[in-house]
């Protein structure tokens, strides 16, 4: 009898293990070994190579893949609600039409944000910023991008309020970062949330960023996150010299991830987190 109970117990454990061990586990992550370079793995718009960008499905996939951060983009609706979407309009990533700023939250919630990607995601909704905080805070790092804040007066205050309500603005919380291409917005946000690290995003036109500019950024930002095409070993050194870190965007191939590894950046923003885990780390 005892033997039978034991076999049943072993079988149950085996079945549970089969269904819960993620595709990419910490054990198979070469970065988890102590003698190898640790690379921060950031799922861009969630694990958007595997699930529709900026949806709960993509964030959950990133979480299941054990990334360090999920990245997402924040816009504001006509009725002042913060929602997650990359583009100014809902057209590309939902079955709706129009500018986010011309639609109410109720209208946006009617749209399907998953079927454009794959039929497996039919019914996926556009998440709000607050819903996402409530599901993922404390579980995975959040890299919050304010999209076009110049179009949305009061956006920085609303983001700060949502974080403060949840006590996510404390100095001990190192798993929230706010970033934007709008650097004035980051200055303002840093004043509202002095304990939260901020990042300046830099497109290809910042290829010749000067040391003076980097110094200035470092007065309010902790990260200089550039388009990966402008990253050179010198740029990485200069960013580190002013005390900032660098998370380039957006790696979509294994070769791109490998190159960023060799450049010794601090983190990689990628649609495919598995590329960061499976980088063939050289002996050092
Ligand atoms: O995290 C940086 C990256 O997301 C910026 O580019 O256009 O994908 O939001 P984009
Ligand atoms: Ca983004």
TrEMBL record:
Coiled coil: none annotated. One of its GO terms (molecular function) is phosphoric diester hydrolase activity. Gene3D superfamilies: Phosphatidylinositol (PI) phosphodiesterase (3.20.20.190). Residues 39-280 form the GP-PDE domain. Keywords: Signal. Residues 1-26 form the signal peptide. This is Glycerophosphoryl diester phosphodiesterase.
């Amino acid at each position: 009898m005892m033997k039978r109970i034991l076999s049943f117990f072993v079988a149950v454990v085996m079945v549970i293990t089969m269904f819960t061990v993620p595709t990419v586990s910490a054990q198979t992550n070469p970065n988890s070994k102590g003698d190898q370079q640790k690379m921060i793995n950031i799922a861009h718009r969630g694990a958007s190579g595997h699930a529709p960008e900026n949806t709960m499905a993509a964030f959950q996939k990133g979480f299941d893949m054990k990334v360090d951060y999920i990245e997402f983009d924040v816009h504001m609706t006509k009725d002042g609600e913060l929602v997650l979407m990359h583009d100014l309009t809902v057209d590309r990533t939902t079955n709706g039409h129009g500018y986010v700023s011309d639609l109410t939250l109720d209208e946006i919630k009617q749209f399907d944000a998953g079927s454009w990607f794959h039929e497996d995601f039919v019914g996926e909704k556009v998440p709000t910023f607050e819903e996402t905080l409530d599901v993922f805070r404390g579980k995975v790092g959040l890299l919050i991008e304010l999209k076009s804040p110049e179009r949305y007066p009061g956006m920085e205050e609303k983001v700060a309020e949502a974080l403060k309500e949840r006590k996510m603005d404390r100095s001990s919380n190192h798993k929230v970062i706010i970033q934007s291409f709008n650097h004035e917005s980051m200055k303002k946000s840093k004043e509202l949330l002095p304990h939260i690290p901020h990042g300046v995003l830099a497109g290809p036109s910042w290829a010749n960023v000067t040391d003076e500019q980097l110094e200035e950024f470092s007065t309010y930002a902790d990260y200089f996150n550039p388009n990966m095409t402008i990253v050179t070993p010198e740029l990485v050194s200069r960013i580190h010299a002013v005390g900032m870190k660098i998370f380039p965007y957006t790696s979509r191939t294994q070769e791109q991830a490998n190159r960023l590894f060799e450049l010794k950046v601090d983190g990689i923003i990628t649609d495919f987190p598995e590329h960061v885990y499976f980088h063939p780390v050289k002996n050092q």
